[in-house]
Design the sequence.
């Protein structure tokens, strides 16, 4: 039974029977989780800084300057307007993309606004320094997480759906959409949608992001030409890197929203101290679990 | 009951924490010890990529059909220097490439002599540090041949390329040290430096799509020696089979906007290594005494010396 090792003797809190303490997140998971969140935030913001040096995306081997997939620019007007073109359609994005107020409050020609980039001023070399340092930190931290997860069995328990979860996939989707969060024993493990999401993030998005990043390096392209085949060229790799970054932002946004909605304090305590409270279902519980709770 | 913080207070808290963090990160990024720490990431790039690449691992080469219709000129497109303009007017007939420094047999070469030497033609991709790419066809002499002819002295470690184009008029070369990066940046005349590559504090400076090697057109009063573009590579890249000094682009003589009469192609590296308007090649043991000592014009502005990523 994979779930038994998650339940340890609870601190003596004098709680009534409807709440139960569970040791959910071992220290390696907690440390790598927070290190990863810092890395992702720095990588995102320094990545936008690097993007701002040439705020346009293309598909293929080279930049087709006249026909970008997406481009941000500013107009000659006074004050300048910010304009974003996506697949040939143009949008006015003044104040957000193309033209926005810099640190001094004056309108500046920049792709993403200064509050979204690291450093906040235009500084390509500064952005690159941050990006590469935290890329290494991200990869090493991720490898530590994967190694620990595989050796401890945590990874399998956390991200591989069990057979019964796959059978009840439809019901889980409905529960999720209606924001009904599992209680009791079901809350001890991740539900099937969580597991599949983590699977995709861990084994599709993050590796794709690293590979697309490497494919932008001319030296890596010499060492591993398959990187270019994989992404259909360096400029496509740059576009994939941008799109996957956006998907990761979406994942983090949903993740944080659900953390707030499903019990902010409990979730935060869980990821900081490891201890998580399971709220019992109201209906009478089977004998087995109530003895466990008394321990 | 555990009280949940209200959404409003969470949002307010997040905004306050966000702006405090941004300011903090900017200050951190300006601190010398932290800059050095961040730079270890770029040191790791060099270390790992040198392990992955052998001296003969070739950069991908492309078909003629892949050549970009317009090879975007970047940085300097027309050097303002009088000496260069005179050479260009004479169709570079008086141009002589100098090879010297830590070599046993320094020599000079005219363009006509170069064209008689064995050459290599390659269709390769040019990747600007800003993010864009273009493919061009280059013909030129392998740098390895020239270095072998000049015979390197045992202490030789780097090859420095001195270019014709003045980037900015140095105001106070002696006093510019690494701790004053910001001052050095402000010394770059507005509008002449490469906007995308240079630090900007959100002012209304006009932004062009440029970068790389862009010359200054003005002279800053107050004297000081002009700072011309320069770059450097180590012997691993210098003797790489695809490292050539190109005099032809896409089958025609290299145009002025792309670096006539001679530019470096050091594939497996970003665009700022591909020095244009190469006048003199100097073999050295260290970068001390050249520019601000970091091995290149952009390196002196804070860019990594290793440009493989």
Sequence:
């Amino acid at each position: 039974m994979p779930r038994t090792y998650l339940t340890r003797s609870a601190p003596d809190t004098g709680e009534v029977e409807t709440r139960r303490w569970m040791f959910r997140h071992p220290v390696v998971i907690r440390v790598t989780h927070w290190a990863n969140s810092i890395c992702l935030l720095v990588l995102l913001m320094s990545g936008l800084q690097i993007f701002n040096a040439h705020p346009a995306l293309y598909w293929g081997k080279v930049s087709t300057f006249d026909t970008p997939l997406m481009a941000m620019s500013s107009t000659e007007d006074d004050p300048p307007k910010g304009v974003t073109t996506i697949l040939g359609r143009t949008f006015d994005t003044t104040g957000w993309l193309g033209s926005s107020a810099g640190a001094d409050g004056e309108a500046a020609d920049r792709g993403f606004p200064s509050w979204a980039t690291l450093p906040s001023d235009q500084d390509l070399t500064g952005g690159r320094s941050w990006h590469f340092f935290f890329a290494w930190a991200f990869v090493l931290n991720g490898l530590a997480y994967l190694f620990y997860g595989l050796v401890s069995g945590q990874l399998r328990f956390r991200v591989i759906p069990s057979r019964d979860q796959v059978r009840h996939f439809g019901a889980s989707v409905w529960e999720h959409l209606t924001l009904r969060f599992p209680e009791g024993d079901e809350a001890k493990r991740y539900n099937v949608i969580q597991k599949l999401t983590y699977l995709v993030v861990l084994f599709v998005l993050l590796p794709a992001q690293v590979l697309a990043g490497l494919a932008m390096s001319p030296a890596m392209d010499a060492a591993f030409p398959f990187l270019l085949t994989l992404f259909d060229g360096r400029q496509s790799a740059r576009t994939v890197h941008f799109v996957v970054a956006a998907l990761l932002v979406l994942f983090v946004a949903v993740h944080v929203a659900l953390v707030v909605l499903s019990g902010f304090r409990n979730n935060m305590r869980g990821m900081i101290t490891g201890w998580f409270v399971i709220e019992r279902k109201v209906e009478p519980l089977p004998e087995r679990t109530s003895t466990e709770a008394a321990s | 009951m555990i009280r949940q913080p209200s959404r409003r207070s969470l949002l307010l808290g997040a905004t306050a924490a966000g702006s405090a963090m941004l300011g903090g990160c900017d200050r951190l990024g300006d601190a010398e010890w932290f800059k050095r720490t961040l730079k270890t990431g770029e040191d790791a790039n060099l270390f790992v990529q040198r392990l992955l690449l052998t001296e003969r691992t070739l950069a991908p080469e492309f078909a003629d059909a892949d050549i970009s219709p317009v090879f975007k000129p970047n940085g300097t497109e027309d050097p303002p220097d009088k000496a260069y303009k005179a050479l260009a007017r004479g169709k570079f007939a008086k141009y002589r490439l100098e090879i010297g420094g830590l070599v046993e047999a320094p020599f000079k070469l005219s363009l006509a002599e170069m064209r008689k030497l064995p050459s290599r033609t390659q269709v390769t991709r040019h990747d600007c540090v800003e993010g864009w790419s273009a493919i061009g066809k280059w013909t030129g002499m392998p740098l390895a041949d020239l270095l072998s002819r000049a015979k390197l002295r045992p202490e030789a470690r780097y090859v420095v390329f001195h270019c014709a184009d003045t980037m900015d008029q140095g105001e106070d070369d002696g006093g510019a040290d690494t701790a004053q990066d910001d001052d050095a940046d402000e010394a770059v005349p507005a509008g002449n430096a490469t906007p995308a590559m240079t630090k900007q504090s959100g002012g209304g400076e006009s932004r062009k799509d440029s970068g790389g090697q862009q010359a200054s057109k003005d002279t800053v009063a107050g004297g000081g020696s002009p700072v011309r573009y320069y770059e450097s590579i180590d012997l691993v890249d210098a003797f790489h089979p695809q490292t050539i000094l190109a005099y032809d682009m896409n089958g025609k003589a290299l145009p002025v906007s792309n670096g006539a009469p001679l530019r470096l192609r050091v594939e497996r590296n970003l665009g700022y290594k591909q020095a244009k308007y190469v006048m003199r090649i100097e073999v050295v043991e260290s970068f001390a005494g050249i520019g601000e000592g970091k091995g290149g014009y952009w390196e002196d502005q804070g860019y990594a010396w290793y440009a493989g990523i």
Chain A touches chain B through 60 residues (CB under 8 Å). DSSP finds eleven helices and eight strands in chain A. Residues 1-10, 289-295 of chain A have pLDDT under 50 and may be disordered. The CA atoms of residues 56 and 260 of chain A lie 35 Å apart.
